[in-house]
Design a protein that fits this description.
Length: about 550
Amino acid sequence: NKINHVSADFSKTVASIRDRLDLCAYPVQLPVGEGPEYHGAIDLIRMVQISFPEQSDDPADFEVGDIAPEFLERAQEARHELLEALSMWDDELMEMLLEEQEPPTELVEAVVRREVRDAKFVPVLLGSALRNRGVPALLDAIVAYLPSPKDKGAIDGRDPRTEDQKSFDPSDEAELGALVFKTIHYPTGDLTFIRVYAGSFESGEALYNPRLGKHERIGRLYVVHAKSRESVEKATAGQIVACMGLKESATGDSLCRKKEQIVDGATTSPKRVISMAVEPISSRDRDKLTETLALIAREDPTFFVETDRETGETIISGMGELHLEVVAHRLRDEFRLSVNRGKPRVAYRQTFTHPTAFETRHIKQTGGSGQYAVVSAEFEPIDGDAIELADTITQGRVTKEFLAAFQKGVREYFEGGGSRGAPILGVRCTVVDGKMHDVDSSQVAFYACGVQAARTAEERCTPALLEPVMIVEVTTPDEYLGSVLGDLNSRRGIVQEMGDEGNNRVVRARVPLSELAEYSTTLRSVTSGRGDYSMEPDGYQIVPQSILAKLEKKG
């Protein structure tokens, strides 16, 4: 695309595709003029020249004729290179080239189609979408070279009831197997796009969704042409149709019939790579924001929404900063929702570093019935992130109700984060003894005793602050490896391994989540847009003292 730009260089672009993507890519067109001088293309398969009128933006407005003499030699050389590349996979074509015969267009097109289907050959076309130049030729090439469902054969699937392997047979008579691959929200109802892999169904029919475990009725069926819709009564294998009426089916769901269930085995959820905290400017819009984000997540399987149970923030996650920026603009422009955005708070945790044991006394006398609770307990660190509550108390010293109230006070104090506001996890509290009063003891008293005991344990044990750590896998061209490693080191990252992936280098590092804010922007900058990364959680680690001092200074 953009062959009309001043800096356009078609040959350099084709060479870059081969080098960076490691593909057998050859042009099936050549530009007639480049940059502002672009005014046509040469079809190397049919050996004709396509010319565009100067001012027309109509994609159907072009002329096909003989190749101009000044471009003929270059076109012949490029065609010979193309045929030589294709002859590696076809003996008949190879024989004709060796005998210096001109192969027929039908043979060349058949070889291109076959090798594109087998993912061995990549044809390269050119054009300028701004003025629709080259678009008809691109559409013709899609029809001519890209595989139809019958070319691809059966698609792998599985039976959701037994997990046995099944196949989508691309014929109208086969068992129905279809995939919901896109959902678009309209005020009048959602428009759902469905790819029919196998079998057929009709408008008004109820289809089974294995994920939901229920039927959903298909409303009106359409074949969509850009902004226009053509109503149809039946969808058959190989078609892409849109329908109204699906209430709960989301992008990525399979549709079938209940007796013969099948789901697409290749559908997976992509990993999110960046997160952002959002909140409505007006508290009145809080419920509307929740509903709207859920609607967007239903449309887009790469978009995730969750409420952080530790910070209470609404966190949206996606495939990049631009992705989340688009969502933010949709909230503002489509749904009229104004939101504040910012990076999410990191969910820190705490844990005890050594055990302690003591007696806690909560005794108050106010003239009437007082409060009396005495508990001896041991606190110790344990592996994992649980809060374990146990007791070895002699039966009858404290009732089960009072003991449960004490443990509730301990749990809620730890989960509430204590004095630092970060949940205290990986702790076991064991009650070893206690006393109660026939009149003054109550659940309220023992609950207050539990809170007091947890607070005392926190003071005595000085919990270590823990931060979440991510495994980050960065893919970068070799020339940017030094810059990537330097940036990871500046983020307190520890490189675990490095490897090769084609012409790229892959770096796997362990990096604190708090250091990964806006990492995608930085990586794009240091690798000139050629780097990519993914990350996944890898537990927690103790926050270094220097970082802890900065966090406590911030409050």
